[in-house]
Amino acid sequence: MSASSPATVVISDPHQPLSTRRQVMGAYVALTKPRIIELLLITTVPPMVLAADGWPGTWLVLATLIGGTLSAAGANVLNNFVDRDIDQLMARTSRRPLPRHQVPPLNALRYGIGLGAAGFFWLWAFTNILAAVLSTAALLFYVFVYTILLKRSTRQNIVIGGAAGAAPVLVGWAAVAGSLSLSAWILFAVVFYWTPPHFWALAIRYKDDYAKAEIPMLPVVASERATKLQVLWYSAVMVLISLALAPVADMGWIYLAAAIGLGVWFMIDAFAVFRDHDLAMRLFRTSTIYLAVLFAAVWIDVVV
């Protein structure tokens, strides 16, 4: 490849050889933050099963997952584009493709917009317009409201911004029903209230990183005790909302037992962080398992 080729990507050290095609592809995949997308997709299928009161059809599930993946990937790429200046200041994010100059910023911008547009038209064509609008609205909210407006200006950034991460619940439900119900909004609220303790646990661990980048995450701008109290508060509300799904959606004992057991586990780890902030990453890992298993319990409860 010549140095002038548009596909050429230079890695962080300009004196090293040009990246291979495989490395270029890897960088573009990394921009989409695949591990975050996995978690988003976990919250898409169980609401579909609940909305359909059974398996909604393999093609509809695949079509919704493909469209949701495109939208989420686009949102993550655009987030990388906007945050490239602060990502290079933080140890946790400094090895992302844009801070390492593996992808030209303009290419990332076009890539993100293209993915987002593809997600909208895919969902519109193969599910329905409501699912497409909700998915794209979540992308726009994540990029413009959370990343651009809130992240660098207020401690409420992740609280309000959590709405974008909870949107896949509504997308999945809408893809099946063509509308939204109280059960869908309850599942949305579970993810919405789950997001702050999940993210603040990570922010406690990387407090110095956020401070260096001047990002007003709660652990940076509030006292340690105030942060831990907020973790407890949002965790408790999340657990109570998860229990509310049982009577509203007429869930069975499988879901109820899972919601109670997982809720107790989550609260134990939230209290552990209150006693010792060094246990924050344990809560972070617990929160990831909690969400996956709780939504799996929705699915299992419906089909059993």
Name the average pLDDT: 92
| Quaternary structure of the protein | single chain
Distance, first to last CA: 56 Å
Can you identify the CATH class of the largest domain? Mainly Alpha
**Helical percentage:** over 70%
Q: How many strand segments?
A: 0
From the alpha carbons, calculate the radius of gyration and give it in angstroms: 20 Å
Which ranges are low-confidence, i.e. pLDDT below 50, for 5 or more consecutive residues? 1-18
Major sheet details: none
How many helices does DSSP assign?
Answer: 14
Counting helices, strands and paired strands, the structural category is mainly alpha
* CATH structural fold name of the largest domain: Tetracycline Repressor, domain 2
Integer count of domains: 2
What is the fourth-level CATH superfamily of the largest domain? UbiA prenyltransferase
Q: Examine the secondary-structure arrangement and name the CATH architecture of the largest domain.
A: Orthogonal Bundle
Shape: globular
SSE order, one letter for each helix or strand: HHHHHHHHHHHHHH
Q: Strand percentage, roughly?
A: under 5%
Question: What's this entry about, in short?
Answer:
This protein is mostly helical and 304 residues long. Helices cover 75% and strands 0% of the residues.
3D structure, described in words:
With 304 residues, the chain is an all-alpha fold. The protein has two domains: 21-179, UbiA prenyltransferase (Tetracycline Repressor, domain 2), CATH 1.10.357; 181-304, Up-down Bundle (Four Helix Bundle (Hemerythrin (Met), subunit A)), CATH 1.20.120. The protein is built from 14 helices and no strands. Helix 2 packs across helix 4 (58-82).
